[in-house]
Amino acid sequence: xxxxxxxxxxxxxxxxxxxxxxxxxxxxxxxxxxxxxxxxxxxxxxxxxxxxxxxxxxxxxxxxxxxxxxxxxxxxxxxxxxxxxxxxxxxxxxxxxxxxxxxxxxxxxxxxxxxxxxxxxxxxxxxxxxxxxxxxxxxxxxxxxxxxxxxxxxxxxxxxxxxxxxxxxxxxxxxxxxxxxxxxxxxxxxxxxxxxxxxxxxxxxxxxxxxxxxxxxxxxxxxxxxxxxxxxxxxxxxxxxxxxxxxx
Length: 248
Ligand code: UDP
What we know:
Carbamate kinase; two-stranded antiparallel ribbon; binds uridine-5'-diphosphate; about 250 residues
């Protein structure tokens, strides 16, 4: 397979950027590092200034993922469902950090949450979010879907459909989709382009299954790219395939 995609992908007008919490700290660290957040904010503001409307679904994996507690369910540990709510709260903390970083660059932005947190975020209402986007505000979406046992990938697919985004840009720590984990297998093959069926058939685990099925059902393309490479986001919103594109 060639190293680049021939897929004709047109310049999007409205994007859903899915940021993993891991993009908020250096590799192999946890928590929120404002240097990392500021770097992402700079890229987001740069593309917002080109007129592209941006909704950001915030992950929380730099702080906590509920599934970590699956095996430890028991009297002396946190219940998995509780941990999922903690994960959703983590996304609100990340969202607040990103909001400050974006606003510090003079770019209007709003934070909305699917979990009630009215002292710090407005409630998520799709019509309201669309109004903000139309007014050129970066819309940060936290709290996931508001329900436990799924991840923010599901929230990304759900919000992208509700907000009529043209594409999901999923920022990850690797270049895109590979046949195996490239951090563990040096022979892993990189895929610049895949159909939904190919990704499913090969069990490539691009995102959680529910999220993937939603995108496939609505023919919503997903682009997976490396957030650590400066300029990738700009190139993606200019209509270039960076990383891997998955489409019908
Ligand atoms: N989460 C949840 N429901 C949602 C979204 C997220 O329960 O709709 C919880 C889940 O435990 C998840 C955690 O919040 O692991 C943090 O989100 P995620 O793992 O998606 O963060 P990322 O991997 O993108 O950093």
